[in-house]
Specification:
This protein has 3 helices and 10 strands; from the N terminus they run αββββββββαββα. By secondary structure, the chain is α+β, with helices and mostly antiparallel strands. A 10-stranded antiparallel beta sheet has the order 1-2-3-4-5-8-7-6-9-10, with helices on both faces. The longest helix is centred in the last third of the chain and has 19 residues.
């Protein structure tokens, strides 16, 4: 869903401010009224892998109804195929910790964690980590490993900025979402 949302936001008339926070790229996009509409944080990993954090507000159904999408996405150069809507089992671990298992939705060359509560836990773990290894699996269920190195100071600043921007994007109607508390 968010992979499509990123493309939709890029085609609409909106203004975006791109900044760098250490090794992270950060973009905050505003709608035509000047309100924050989407925040994207991106970190480059090994072998062309990218880690994205996304928080975006988009229309859902009516002119006045909007929804909020939160996600953590890993894209890479290898083709992964598509997963069922529930996702595919994906293993990842921070630093030298124990592997964790969750379901990520796969589309083409990206795996995405899009449950707000899971994204919140992922961001919490990311904030204190120095590295991340994620094993996405392709359509043949062969492991495709991606690694990311973090500067903990930069990552903490990105996480704080992302949470604040996401609170602003969500507005009062979505103030109780776990990621933005």
């Amino acid at each position: 869903m968010v992979l499509g949302t990123m493309g939709m936001l890029a085609t609409d008339r909106a203004q975006a401010l791109a900044t760098w926070i250490g090794s992270w790229d950060y973009v905050l996009q505003h709608d035509q009224e000047g309100r924050p509409r989407a925040a994207f944080a991106r970190l480059r990993g090994d072998d062309e892998a990218l880690l994205w954090l996304t928080c975006a507000r988009f229309p859902s159904g009516g002119e006045t109804q909007e929804a909020l999408a939160l996600s953590a996405t890993v894209s890479q150069k290898s083709y992964l195929g598509r997963s069922p809507p529930r996702g595919r089992s994906t293993v990842y671990w921070f630093d030298d910790g124990s592997p964790e298992l969750s379901y990520w939705v796969y589309r083409e060359k990206a795996g995405q964690l899009a449950n707000a509560e899971q994204v919140s836990r992922f961001l919490e773990r990311l904030t204190g980590a120095q590295s991340l290894v994620i094993e996405l699996s392709n359509y043949r269920f062969e492991t495709q490993r991606s690694q990311f190195q973090f500067n903990p100071v930069d990552t903490k600043r990105v996480a704080e900025r992302f949470r604040q921007d996401c609170r602003d994007i969500a507005g009062p109607a979505n103030a109780n979402l776990p990621l933005i508390r």
